[in-house]
User: What shape does this take?
Amino acid sequence: MRAESECHRELKEGRKERSALLIPETMSTLRIPQPVPPVADDCEQLRKAFAGWGTNEDLIISILGHRNAAQRKLIRETYFETYGEDLLKALDKELSNDFERLVLLWTLDPAERDAFLANEATKRWTSSNQVLMEIACTRSSDQLLFARKAYHARYKKSLEEDVAHHTTGEFRKLLLPLVSSYRYEGDEVNLTLAKTEAKVLHEKISKKAYSDDELIRILATRSKPQINATLNHYKDEFGKDINKDLKADPKDEFLALLRSTVKCLVRSERYFEKAARLAINKRGTDEGALTRVVATRAEIDLKIIADEYQRRSSVPLDKAVAKDTTGDYEKMLLAILGHDDV
Assistant: This one.
């Protein structure tokens, strides 16, 4: 964990960005009590949870599992101002294993969380690791920019620098522009351009030029509505969804990354539903993937992901999580999923 002074400085700098954390609640699974207790009370209760011989995990879950990003950020700020200790440090000392990782990721500001996950991905990079692409393609332009700023502050270097250093070949060629992107966020779509670029994509894919500069330029720079229009035209004109054409070699890891890139840009809820399903259905749960999906999507679109999960699996996501996990880790996941009573 960072030094307390560094943490405090970052928290203060982050206040200006709090407006970017406002989420459409209809797609969030988070359940917040009404009225919300005063932040000073939350901090006092958390301090009590750490006191004595044993940690009161249920008390931690009852607070942090029912506060939104702005509220959690204010709790961190107030906790530091009141007790002179970074709340993350206190949690790190008191908790362990998958429960600790989930609580720490959840308590981080979304931009800090993305920076942490991206850095972790570069450190243990393999060609099949899709976390960097996931962050680059499922965040808004401002969210990705804030994540890159948080990366600067936390690691004293740029995300682009680390991605370039830790990746090679066609993976670097795709990932570097993706993490560097700042896409247009409006709804304007140029249908003539969509038609032209659909032909470009089809031509490159037909030639198996999967890492061609033009193909990567389109995926890495165009707005999501523009890419959606292009891919709709691709299907209408050439009779196949682009991802079917990108399955020429199912074992090719770069093609798998390209398919995930397309899915994240235009159907991110399907990408995350599959990630959750694979995490749960593995022989032995992939807690890392499940934690990441729940912690990063709870306040964005986890309700849609859960609906998609139930449609695909005929089992509610919270029931699948309860069946596949145990202990405080299970309780915290279910709290974030909105399963338990506030």
Summary: Residues 191-206 form the longest helix (16 residues). The CA atoms of residues 169 and 291 lie 30 Å apart. Confidence is low (pLDDT under 50) at residues 1-24. DSSP finds 21 helices and no strands in the chain.
